[in-house]
Amino acid sequence: EAKNLLPYLGPNKMRDCFCTINLDQEEVYRTQVVEKSLSPFFSEEFYFEIPRTFQYLSFYVYDKNVLQRDLRIGKVAIKKEDLCNHSGKETWFSLQPVDSNSEVQGKVHLELKLNELITENGTVCQQLVVHIKACHGLPLINGQSCDPYATVSLVGPSRNDQKKTKVKKKTSNPQFNEIFYFEIDLWNNGNLVQDVFLGEIKVPVNVLRNDTSYQAWYLLQPRDNGNKSSKTDDLGSLRLNICYTEDYVLPSEYYGPLKTLLLKSPDVQPISASAAYILGEICRDKNDAVLPLVRLLLHHNKLVPFVTAVAELDLKDTQDANTIFRGNSLATRCLDEMMKIVGGHYLKVTLKSTLDEICESSKSCEIDPIKLKEGDNVENNKENLRYYVDKLFSTIVRSSMSCPTVMCDIFYSLRQMATQRFPNDPHVQYSAVSSFVFLRFFAVAVVSPHTFHLRPHHPDAQTIRTLTLISKTIQTLGSWGSLSKSKSSFKETFMCEFFKMFQEEGYIIAVKKFLDEISSTETKESSGTSEPVHLKEGEMNKRAQGRTRIGKKNFKKRWFCLTSRELTYHKQPGKDAIYTIPVKNILAVEKLEESSFNRKNMFQVIHTEKPLYVQANNCVEANEWIDILCRVSRCNQNRLSSFHPSAYLNGNWLCCQETSENTPGCKPCTAGVPADIQIDIDEDREIERIYSLFTLSLLKLQKMEEACGTIAVYQGPQKEPDDYSNFVIEDSVTTFKTIQQIKSILEKLDEPHEKYRKKRSSSAKYGSKENPIGKTSE
User: Which residue stretches belong to region Disordered (predicted)?
Assistant: First the structure.
């Protein structure tokens, strides 16, 4: 959220604001527009992999302008090196002004040499030779690559000589390769009104020695005399919660012992002595441990027995059947995460069409007399709300055939355990399942559709209110149908009155039938083979196939849609497909070099016909499309082993200059991705994250080890010493042995990590492209 933004001058002071997330200046995401506010509350979450190097993670706050270009109110730029300091914390940042100085980025490669020359009259003079080789990562101007050139100045006490390179068109990585003499600043020639400053560096000539060549990469800097605003606080501030992780993943063979120990967890007796459970115990935030654990165990079909075992431990401490699985334990968090990972497609086929209808209509569903607007008819609103609730409820209770098998398997185990724990309660077999599938899955997805990728943005205030009322009703229907009729969870009188519409035997029967079906071990007909799985969609630029001429008209915006069966593109969402590529025909998916069409973020889908050249909107989106296309096609027959990294234009391949269009590729294809297309899991990466979490929690692991020793030695009456009262230790001997194994494995893994860190720091020589002069040391 933002607050105290600078108001408009004049009577209408409010602004229509949105915020963008940028890697340096490249926009990767934007929020929806919040209208007429100087303190907009965006409440949006974005998760993405970072596919390239970057200097800053930046956030720009814009004022939406319908007739003119959107106005940048201010920005927050966080250095890559500082992201870890802010990770996991909510922080208010002051907005900084946006000008040419604040937008400086990129680096320049220089070679300098000082020569001695003998003049015509026989005297010796010195000559400075400056070779401007290249620049890399220059800023985008209005979202586009610029037309950069460089000037070189020798600044002396009595004169200032200046030279200028040729302009390089439409690139942020220009190759100049021109030799001059002097000091450097960079300008963009793409603006017809006035050239835009892109950055400068200054190199003192006294570092040079005669006949010695000196070359290095430099980070571009703002102007020395840049005018910095002294009233930056007046622009307002932005509240962010950033979670940033950076892991160095080693080759697979290093992770074997840790993987084996973790995968043995479901078989350890008691489960609290297993490595996976211990990780959940010692992590400061259990959620940090849950994601990599669930993904790893899911990948190896070990999640069901593990969750069953930890859920059984939860049930031992549950005294009241009405509170079953209501806490935030390791078991419930693992189940929540599992449902998010495997249940995405299930939610789409079940909820999306109705949620789209709700979000795109403007029907009022407010039934709280206090919140009714002038002119609202509460009876009409009740009918609107009932229509949506009935439509969603009906879809949910008829969706059991689409419920993922792994969810059904876990629900079956929960149901059996709950019945054994409370044998005299006939309703607990249903409430054990409904507390997850209704309370923690469907109800949450209804109230936050953007979080589950069912909607692109956080809904507006009126829609949020409608979704909240629907969610509360669906949640209560699920739990009410699985308990006795006398139970009611509503505190508000208006909700109690509304819910009377649903207190019919038919709803209870429908809920119980649905819960029976999704917690059964009976084999279901697979819905996955008859219906293609929707994987990804979005608008991108496509180059017309078969064209040989470079031109803007060759690229057109198209709506792309990928399922488990085919890749299609359409003129608009919902229109018939213009072109279809069956997934089985995809031979390779690879990046396309920028030089092919002077366009960034391009990739190619190589199939049995001509390659399809596509330009994504940013590097994150390009990486996501390449990744998912590789996954869905990785088992195809006849996949290529080599490809052309550039396009075939004007009768030859730009990369290798071969003239035949059928010439085999000149570069090896990227290795296939070893992961499931629906459950995107790289096990080495997950184990590396677990290693990092164990390492960060080493002190707590040692305390747990000491607590095991204390329990094993102590022979007195039972008590709860401070040093182990916070840990679940059922069997101190087995737990102690597991901790010893964990520590031994961590020590062995520390060695290759330390070697890699040393190698990385020594290889990145100061002044190299990876570690340019002017970079803040990490």
Answer: 522-547, 753-778
Q: How confident is the model at residue 551 (pLDDT cuts 50, 70, 90)?
A: very low
Q: What is the 3-state secondary structure (H, E, C) of 602-642?
A: EEEEEECCCCEEEECCCHHHHHHHHHHHHHHHCCCCCCCCE
| Polymer length in residues for the chain | 778
Domains: count for the chain: 4
- In sequence order, which ranges of 241-324 are alpha helices (DSSP H)? 256-263, 275-282, 286-299, 303-316
Whether residues 481 and 555 share a domain: the answer is no
Asked if residue 592 and residue 487 are part of one domain, the reply reads no
- The DSSP secondary structure of 80-107, one letter per residue, reads GGGHHHHBTEEEEEE-B--STTTT---E
Could you tell me the residue range of the domain that residue 420 belongs to? Answer: 343-521
More confident residue, 228 or 536: 536
Cβ neighbourhood burial of 506 (10 Å; 0-12, 13-18, 19+): exposed
Return the CATH number at 541.
Answer: 2.30.29.30
Kindly state the tokens that stand for 774. 């002017």
Same domain, 92 and 118: no
Nearest to 102 by CA among 72, 71, 81, 82: 72
Residues 360 and 502 occupy one common structural domain = yes
Same domain? 505 vs 592: no
As given in the structure block, the two tokens for residue 115 are 């020569």
Work out whether strand 175-180 and strand 124-136 pair parallel, antiparallel, or are unpaired. Answer: antiparallel
**Please, is 134 exposed, middle or buried when counting C-beta atoms within 10 Å of its C-beta (0-12, 13-18, 19+)?**
middle
Which of 370-379, 420-429, 488-497 shows the lowest per-residue confidence on average (mean pLDDT)?
Answer: 488-497
Give residue-wise pLDDT tens across range 25-65: 889 999 989 989 999 999 888 988 898 888 899 999 999 88
Q: Which domain CATH number covers 148?
A: 2.60.40.150
Residue 645's pLDDT band (cuts 50, 70, 90):
very high
Single-letter code of the amino acid located at 769: K
Q: What pLDDT does residue 531 have?
A: 61
pLDDT tens for residues 420-447? 989 888 888 898 999 899 999 999 999 9
Q: Residues 6 or more apart from 282 whose CB is under 8 A from it? A: 694, 697, 700, 701, 704
In angstroms, the CA 648 to CA 50 distance is 29
Q: What is residue 673's predicted lDDT score, i.e. its pLDDT?
A: 43
From CA 750, how far away is CA 283, in angstroms rounded?
19
Domain boundary (668, 691, 707) is at 668
Mean pLDDT of 475-501: 74
The answer to whether residue 360 sits within a structural domain is: yes
Q: What is the DSSP string of 542-587?
A: EEPTT--S--GGGEEEEEEEEESSEEEEESSTTSPEEEEEEGGGEE
Phi, psi for 500 (deg, rounded to 5): -60, -25
Rounded to a whole number of angstroms, the distance between the first and last alpha carbons of the chain is: 30
Q: Per the structure block, which two tokens stand in for 598?
A: 């002077």
Q: What is the pLDDT of residues 238-282, one digit of tens each?
A: 999 999 988 889 999 999 999 999 999 999 999 999 999 999 999
What is d(CA 307, CA 338) in angstroms, rounded to the nearest whole number?
A: 10
Whether 513 and 538 share a structural domain: no
pTM of the model: 0.79
Tell me the two tokens of residue 741: 């194994």
> Could you report the per-residue pLDDT of 552-601, keeping only the tens digit for each?
457 899 999 998 889 999 999 889 999 999 999 999 999 999 888 888 89
Judge whether 683 lies within some domain. no
How far CA 19 is from CA of 16, 60, 430, 604, in Å, comes to: 11, 6, 44, 31
307-320 as b/e: b if 16+ CB within 10 A: bbbbbbbbbeebee
CA distance linking residue 738 with residue 710, whole number of Å: 16
Q: Exposed/middle/buried for 49, CB within 10 Å: 0-12, 13-18, 19+?
A: exposed
DSSP one-letter code for 458? P
What was the pLDDT predicted at 583?
A: 92
